Amino acid sequence: MDDHIEKINSVEAKAGRTLPPSLKEWICFIEHMLKTDQWIFRDSYDISFSEKFQAVTLMIQGEADYYWAVKIENLSFEDPPVDGYLLDYEGDTGDFLHHELKAHRLTSFVLKYLLDYHYMFVGTGGYFTPLTNRSKTIEEFAKALGPYVRIEDYLVFESETVIAYIVEDAGDPDRGGLGVHYRAAIHELPACVKNNFSERTMHYGFDLRRG
After folding, report:
1. Which residues pair with 181 in a beta bridge?
2. Which CATH number fits the domain 118-210, given the four candidates 3.30.870, 3.40.50, 3.30.160, 3.30.70?
3. pTM attached to this predicted model
């Protein structure tokens, strides 16, 4: 913490509030990555107090059209919720508008972000696909990989070679999304991983239809 106290003090002074422990840890983590040339995120550095948002920004999306931030009124929580702010394309003013609550806790936001972009860091392949029968997919992955761990609306399955997560759709019990990351040969992957590949909306690494 002492190595990054200047940055923490600067944000606190501009926000007029004391930052909660989890946000201080986030700042230390980001600042340490910058100082040691270990930037592992898809998106870009932006930690500051925004007068326009009345929030402390955590990061800006690589396309510069989306911010993740903690509202000033939520700084009283030890592990505060994270909100998203989207560039107003229709207004053509360069302003950002509040989009949605991204996570109920900063800790959850970080873990979900890492799951979403795991392919940037490690692995031999992966994909994301929409689901139309969520309960069946949960059953398949639980049978192959064991019980899931819940991180808010993400159900996370893990083995030595596979990390998979199912994103719940709050409005529809059948729908959702499936993200899978793996580091194994095709013949070593469980059937549930290979069977869901065909409906993917994106993938990286080798094509699972080969095997």
Report:
1. 126, 163
2. 3.30.160
3. 0.88
